[in-house]
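The freezer alarm interrupted the setup, so I double-checked each line after restarting. Inputs confirmed:
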Amino acid sequence: MSWTDLLALLPILILVLGSTTLLMVGAWRPGYRPLLLAGVFTALAAALCAGLLHPPLGEVARMFDTGPYGRFFTILWSLVAAVTLLLSLRYGEERRFPGGEYTALVLFACAGMALLSSATSLVGIFLGLEAFTLVLYILIAFHKGTAEGAEAGLKYLVLGAVATGFLALGIALIYAASGTFHLPEAMAAVSGEGRLRALGLVGWAMLLIAVGFKVSLVPFHLWTPDVYQGAPAPVTGLLSTGSKGAVFAALVPLAAGLGGGWHELAPVLWVLAALSMLIGTLCALAQENIKRMLAYSSVVHMGYVLIALLAAGAAGRSAVIFYLIAYAVVNLGAFGVIASLADGETEPQDLERWQGIGYRHPFRAGAMSLFLLSLAGIPPTAGFIGKFGIFYAAVDEGYITLVLLGVLASLISLYYYLRPVIVMFMSDEEAVPLHPGGGHEHAGLVICLAATLLLGILPGPLLDLIAAVVP
Amino acid sequence: MMIDPTNFPVLTLLIAIPLAGALGCLLLHRSAALCRWTALTATGAVFVLALGMFARAQGAGGWLAWEDCAWIGRFGIRYTLGMDGLSLLMVLLTAFLLLLSVLISWNVSRHAPLFHALLLVMEAGILGVFLALDLVLFYLFWEVMLIPMFFLIGVWGHGRRIYAAVKFFLFTLAGSLLMLLAILALYVLHGRQTGDYTFALAALQQTDVPATLAPWLYGAFLLAFAVKVPLVPVHTWLPDAHTEAPTAGSVILAGLLLKTGVYGLLRFGLPLFPEVARASLPFLAALALLGIFHAAWVAYCQEDAKRLIAYSSVAHLGFVILGLAAWDATALQGSILQMVNHGVTTGALFALVGMIDERAGTRRIDRLGGLWARTPVLAALLLFFSMASLGLPGLNNFTGEILILLGTFRVHPLWGGLAMAGVLFAAVYMLRLVLGVVWGRPLGEEPWRDLTAREALVLVPLALMVLWLGLYPAPFLAPIAEPVRRLLAEAPLLALKGGLP
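Predicted 3D structure, all chains:
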């Protein structure tokens, strides 16, 4: 590996080396706050480096893209990791999380997501995906004291292992059909009329199943609510935004490159999208637990993203990326609110505990309402522009039935997004005060809130940037 | 044609003032009194601005003000605001009713800062709807109106407020989401035909919509607007929302939100799909007539005075839609005038019922009575506005109704004749209200305060408006003459300006 390769990988190296350094520092000089804040700065440094550095080559080791697309996502996931750490600051302190390990794991997960988003080879995909999945096993069960945490970790582990199996088998089949791990050639082998084309398509289908597990599409979504519920709220935020977003980010170039093969996969994707939207919506309706509700809502949202991915034109690909960003901002904020309301023992997950807090904690309740309205796609929020882009791409490509299903899901979803708002602001019960929250948490929430509104009112610059980096 | 020579963004200012006021209310949330005055100042400033534009327009046609700049370039979305006579009248009504709403809500003590902030956000949303000429911008304002009203009903409402608030939100959103799809379809069609991807109303009007697709797209628009108007099969949210909302909420709902539906039809629905829209007019007329009779019947059976007035709104809006469906200059002018009339009288009636409720603690007609003996001035005003509502000549609703009926009768005698009977129905249920509330034996002994100065400040301007509109409506008819001509001629919206600005 030459100097130029290392230079091109510098942002990732900052994340990984920062992660290991903090782990070591934490082992010898245990602390919490300084280590987490150092983690925030490491992530910001990686983002800055990815933004400012123009690497001499566009691809490293025929595995990772270090061009604009890869660096764009490195920046995004670094920022997500920084906000996650900011939102965990008080939450983890009161639960006595070991600072070194926690920070190191979040940064390492971020590096994995960045690698996955920029993968240009099947091995790269496998490496990136496993890097952050392994980390998430630990992070989900990080609060050792709770039974839910252990259950969630185990569930994620078992289903994650199944997904890994599918992924490995899929990659093997594609390799057998094409003779290469490098994606452009591997995809060309499937698109053509090769003799082993059927084998390749089976491989792609297996890969899609693994993806389905990771981004929790129906019918591979069963782990989602339990894991969301059991994991610490900031980790749930990371899981819900980064880990799913990175998978879609890796799929976008695939959709672009697969060409005719993509259309053969289209009916499968169509069914997955429709099922995710409908079943996710119906399940979310019945939830009394806000984290479970957000889990099912994420199933629905991944269905929306899949619509845009199906409509694989340039508009569709841009829509996917914008939606991922909007969803990341909003979901981080929503789980941040939950984390900031949690005391040292429990999180306020049951809606009952949210009664009347709109007037007790107005800023956070207001922010939560805005995040929920954004998830519902009401303007002027990021969620509206995201949904607008997806619907536009789908109408443009003629997926009318799917869009109508999406509209139906949006309409029903409004009911469960409004419920917390109603409970917070319109309940007659006197509020039981929850945790007042720390300054860092408020700072993290202000960032998410500002981004939600900014992307809803002035999305132009980001849309232009996406159009410039999208393959 | 009169374009602001200084290029001063007066329309943006109209929307920005209430938004700034709302922000002020949230920042000043420690003092309820300061918030009240902030809200009053903001709505007052908007009213003065609107009045100034009305005075300067003097019935001129074309665009009185126009602002346009790029907004989201990638989608071709522009920030386009424009004001013609129709918008002007609606903006004036909005500014007037919002100012009064702040006065009506002077005594709101629960979470007063939030209340006033929401009123102001709502004002910005409604003004935006009446001014936006880019379809996405319009959609944005259309949704922005929803959220404050949802909170107003849900937090400050009565009885089954949450049910009413959610129902209101879901009904409106169901319509508007389909409208969003139709907007997108139109956008894609236009982009493919001309290569110019834009949401500008003036451009999309030129789209050649395939005959198989046009009814679907028009239907989506129509559904969104019909829910707001509301036309009969989709009107069921209205009685609940109006009844459970706080007084200011009811005034705004009846006075303004319903008008956004009719306005949307006039500004977007009809010009975008002229042929299909023309074909749908008899259908609209049938729904309007059905609404007039059905709502009158149901209103007559109500026990709750507020619910009775809520149903009377459905009936009155039936007249408005009938005038529109007649597709005749006189009737259409009458329709637009009637929107203003209905805003004034129904706003006043809701305010009055709110005032009576504050004193009596009930709105049930059988538990009220003898108001004349206890609070003569209030009772007299209730009588006055009820007479206006049922269309007594010399008062405002008469002028609107007579124009609608004349115009309709000229084109479709049958519709006109049926509607005439509807006027009679209106008299029946309004008189029942008056009979039950004003006359009869007082059902209590304790003395009630008669009209307070603040309440007079709300009702006297409304009463003056009733007389002005009833006796000399010409100043209000002048600005809409040209927009109505343009609508009927189906002339492109911007021909007067000589193309795009």
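Quick read of the result. The beta strands of chain A are 59-60, 64-65.
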